[in-house]
Every structure is written in C-alpha cells, then in structure tokens.
Amino acid sequence: MKLLVFCEAHADFLTASALVDRVLHDEGSAWVSDLLRSHPESVREWASDGHGKEFFDLHKLEAYRRDLGNVRFMPGHFDGKPGAAGAQAARNAFAIAREVGKRDPSTRLGAVVIVWDMDDQGELRRKGLAQARTEASRWASFQIVLGCPDPMREAWVLAGFERESDEEHARLGELRRDLGFSPCDEAHQLNAKDEQAKRNPKRVVRRLMGDDREREARCLTEAPLERLRERGAVSGLREFLEEVKARVVPLIQGPSASARHARRQE
Fold first, then answer.
1. Is the CB of residue 127 less than 8 Å from the CB of residue 83?
2. Which of 93, 102, 211, 212 is spaced 20 to 30 Å from 9 by Cα?
3. Residue 185 CB: number of other CB atoms within 10 A?
4. SS3 of 218, please?
5. Rounded to 5°, angle at Cα 102 from 40 and 58
6. Best CA proximity match to 145, nearest among 16, 59, 1, 44
7. How many whole angstroms separate alpha carbon 192 and alpha carbon 123?
8. Every domain of the chain and the residues it spans
9. Orientation angle between helical segments 237-247 and 10-27, nearest 10 degrees
10. pLDDT tens figures, 117-160
11. 3-class secondary structure per residue, 94-124
12. pTM value surpassing 0.85
C-alpha cells in the first residue's frame, strides 16, 4: 500500500511516518506487525515527490503542479462558504495526490496524510483542512488523514518523553520549575513562536534532548500508545492516532501473501 504525506519539513515526515507505523504495528493484524519489523516496505511505502524526498512539501504545491503537467487547481468556496485557513492549499494537495495516484496504477494509493503545524491558527486551520477533506471525500479513491500538531510537532515528541538518565531527570525538573507545569503532560501550553522564548516547544525539546534526532524518535517509537493518547489529548496527537487507526489500518486486511501461499502448499 502506498501512502503519500504532505508536510512542511523532513522532521515532520519522520514524526508522521513513525506514528503511522506504530499504529499499524500495535493496532493491525499480527502478520502486519511481523512484516513491519522485518520488511516494512512489503506493508507500506511512502510516495516520493519526484525530487528524492519521501514526502511532498506543503510549500511547493505550485512546483508539483508544474511537474505533473495537468493538475488543475480549482479556486472557490467550500459548500458555499469561504475556505478557512489552509483550505485551498489542502484542496490543491488532494488534486496533486489524485494525479500521483494515476501515474502509478500498479501501486494503490491507499491514503494521503497531511501533517501541518497549527502554530497560532489552530481553530481556523483545523476548520480549513476539514473543509477540504469533506469536499475531496466525494471523489477521492484514497483515505485522508489529518494531522494537526498544536501548536507544532514538537508537542507530539514531548508527549512521548520519559527520562532515560539522571541527567534527563534533572533537565526535566529544571524545565518544570521554569515553566510552572510539566512540558510533557501539557505540551499544548508551549505556544510561543519565538524560538528563544521560554514557552517555545522547539526550545524545550532542545533543552531536554539537545539536537539528538534518534532520542526524539524514541519518544514516538517506544512510548506506549496509551501514553501518547493521554498526553496528546489537547495537542492533536490523540486525534491523529485515532484517525490512522480508523482510516489506514483497515486498508491492510486479510492474511499475508506468504501465509496464503503456505496454505496452498498444504
């Protein structure tokens, strides 16, 4: 199954893909879990943007339209109402996804995932993405999953953090005293855009983990899903995990090809 991700940066793709795999592994069939550990590409693959990336950059939709040649971006209202923040961009993204799916019919495009930081537009951007999905669902052959990190993806990373050393324990304690709350339990309160500000989530992640991408990844790949759901109830993480479970997991059904072959040989 092919999955296509629209996001703003490589770090966002790593977060989204790690979480999708976690849900497929923990919520899917046993054979899915087994193959994800050994041969993940036999379960799912990420659609390339044609420029060496495993995701499509939300800021380059016009460039993708030109590359694909015949994608028409339709302006206008959504069910008679003006589009909220991000609605037109999402509409354009779904048009691009439809064309990408047509270009390679040998591999089914099962789902399109959009992960877009809410920043300071949370309510309006969620509304805009929902408008575009409602419209696209009338024609799309693929599922659409919306990821709305509020305020940004680092809040999702923090939701999975558990100290691994005395040093991390000390850093977390300092941050709690500095902020007046736990940045892991209430990451949604880290709403400052200035990266030097006390409540900026990027700053908090750096103070806890430095620039260690592998350490960040473990917050998502090793944390129990229940921890992620509980701590991510307000930051949009719980909703994203539930969307993946409801919209992507059912796309991979039935016994694996190897199991079917084995039965035929009996």
1. no
2. 102
3. 14
4. helix
5. 70
6. 16
7. 17
8. 1-150+236-255, 153-232
9. 60
10. 999 999 999 999 999 999 999 999 999 999 999 999 999 999 99
11. HHHHHHHHHHCCCCCEEEEEEECCCCCCHHH
12. yes
- Of 66, 121, 58, the closest CA to residue 94 belongs to 58
* Segment 58-77 mean pLDDT: 95
- Largest distance between two CA atoms of the chain: 65
**CA nearest neighbour of 110 among 218, 5, 238:** 5
Block residue for tokens 């983990």: 209
Residue carrying structure tokens 């951007």: 125
Q: Give φ, ψ of 165 to 5 degrees.
A: -155, 165
Q: How many CB atoms lie under 10 A from the CB of residue 166? A: 8
Collapse the DSSP code of 226 into the 3-class scheme (helix H, G, I; strand E, B; otherwise coil) and give the result: helix
Q: Residue 250: which of 126, 143, 98, 154 has the closest Cα?
A: 143
Structure tokens at 75: 């302006």
Instruction: Kindly give, in sequence order, each residue whose CB lies less than 8 Å from that of residue 42, ignoring residues fewer than 6 positions away.
Output: 35
CA 57, 11, 210 angle in degrees (round to 5)?
150
Give the C-alpha separation, 109 to 115, whole Å: 17
AA identity, residue 157: V
Q: What is the pLDDT of residues 172-228, one digit of tens each?
A: 999 999 999 999 999 999 999 999 999 999 999 999 999 899 999 999 999 999 999
